[in-house]
Amino acid sequence: MRSVTYSMSVSLDGYVVGPDGSFDWTAPDEEVFRFATDEVQELGVHLLGRRLYETMLYWETADQNPSLDFSTHEFAALWKSIPKVVFSTTLSAVQGNARLACDGLAEEIERLRAEPGRGDIAIGGPTLAAEAAALGLIDEYRARIYPVLLGGGIPFFPQHERRVDLELVETRTFGSGVVSLRYRVARRPTCPPRPGEDEPAIEVL
Asked: How many angstroms separate the CA atoms of 143 and 158, rounded?
């Protein structure tokens, strides 16, 4: 079954966007950019909210710029080829290899999990990820932590009053000081009730 992953660049104090709405601090060097490209190659489909979709529209035409280097063109080609599902109540149409979501997030993920094919189901954007987390649908958290403190903004991790245990899968430190952390959600097996536990108590007279 396909895994649902949530991956973004994040500050050391846990924000994906600063209090002023900026994310210029996430500009990757060549090493981090290559890592991100390799991650995109593993995807089968990408789920996005409206704001992230509009931000990533840049990559729909980036490969038409002859001054960009090979790695940038390679990422653009990969991104354009990935099927995308956009969740928006304001957009009436989307561009490229994308479609507007027909149903709610849980229904879309259930359908995508059941479809044959390779590659993970990626969720992009903290708002959409928070909804998926509240529904217990995220299997992996992947954070590229940048050596910067923002002091506020939009948090990477969903803010909900529910404990989620994680298992460390992979770490990688880059020359720039960026650290990639990959955690899998620990799914605890549900034990069936012991005989008699689900039966109503019988009062003996």
From this structure: 13
Q: Is residue 150 within 8 Å of residue 178, measured between CB atoms?
A: no
Q: Which two tokens stand for residue 17?
A: 């966007």
Cα 43 to its chain centre, rounded Å, is 11
- What is the arrangement of strands in the sheet containing 4-11, beginning at the earlier edge strand? 98-100, 84-87, 43-49, 120-124, 4-11, 140-146, 179-185, 166-173
Q: What is the pLDDT of residue 192?
A: 57
Higher pLDDT, 130 or 203: 130
- In sequence order, what are the residues at sequence separation of 6 or more whose Cβ sits closer than 8 angstroms to the Cβ of residue 194? none
What's this model's pTM, rounded to 2 decimal places?
A: 0.85
* CA gap 56, 40 in Å, rounded: 13
* Helical segments of 87-178, H only: 105-114, 126-134
55: left (phi over 0), alpha (psi -120 to 50) or beta: alpha
Residue 82: name the closest of 60, 100, 67 by CA: 60
